[in-house]
Amino acid sequence: MTRVEATPARRHARLRISTTQPTQFIDLTDDVEAFVDAAGVRAGIINLQTLHTTTAIVLNEHEPLLLGDFTALLERTAPLRAPYRHDDFSVRTVNLIPGEVERVNGHAHCRALFLSPSACLNIVDGRLELGRWQRIFLAELDGPRVRELSIVVIAADGR
Predict the structure, then answer these.
(1) H helices of 6-62, where?
(2) What CA–CA distance (Å, rounded) separates 59 from 137?
(3) CB 37 within 8 Å of CB 138
(4) Consecutive H or E run containing 46
(5) pTM, entire model
(6) What CATH number should be reported for the domain holding residue 84?
(7) What is each CA distance from 82 to 45, 74, 77, 112, 144, in whole angstroms?
(8) What domain range includes position 119?
(9) What are the residues whose beta carbons fall under 8 Å from the beta carbon of 118, sequence distance 6 or more?
(10) Which among 15, 54, 101, 135 is least surrounded, fewest beta carbons within 10 Å?
């Protein structure tokens, strides 16, 4: 993961993450907390947005068995081996790049439909306000790949 540094003058960054699994939950919490701390905002919000249609931002508990349950749930919801018209290149004619090999990833797009591409979180007293077990994850649905997130911190006073 590429670390990003915030300063009071720089409250936007892009975070690059190399995923290693087809479906993966990557805990971003420590990096996001460090970004908030460096931004110097005492009260405000931070927005995290994935720049891909086959990833998501998820808040949940970081417990290994639960993360495995999430992966199993996604597989049951949109199985990898099911037929998807998105993957039928004999009929699909849009969003194709000439000369590039298209990924067979209809399952990942269908899984993303049930998740959010962004999360907006409160900053209180200079820290993320998270519940006891809440962690911030990038959910990879079509990996392994290099992914990008856009992060913006906004102070409550508009500065």
Answers:
(1) 29-39
(2) 6
(3) no
(4) strand 43-50
(5) 0.92
(6) 2.60.120.460
(7) 40, 13, 10, 16, 20
(8) 12-88+104-155
(9) 47, 48, 49, 50, 57
(10) 101
Q: What's 102's DSSP letter?
A: P
pLDDT digits (tens, 9 = 90+) for 48-66: 999 999 999 999 999 999 9
Rounded CA separation 137/46 (Å): 14
- Asked, for residue 98, whether it belongs to a domain, the answer is no
101-149 residue pLDDT tens? 899 999 999 999 999 999 999 999 999 999 999 999 999 999 999 999 9
Q: Name the 3-class secondary structure at 15.
A: strand
How far, in Å, CA of 46 to CA of 82, rounded? Answer: 37
- Domain assignment present for residue 99? The answer is no
Cα 87 to Cα 90: distance, rounded to the nearest angstrom = 9
Residue that the structure tokens 């990924």 belong to: 103
Tokens matching residue 15:
């975070």
Instruction: Give domain status of residue 3, yes or no.
Output: no
Q: Which three-class secondary structure string do you get for 51-71? A: CCCCEEEEEEECCHHHHHHHH
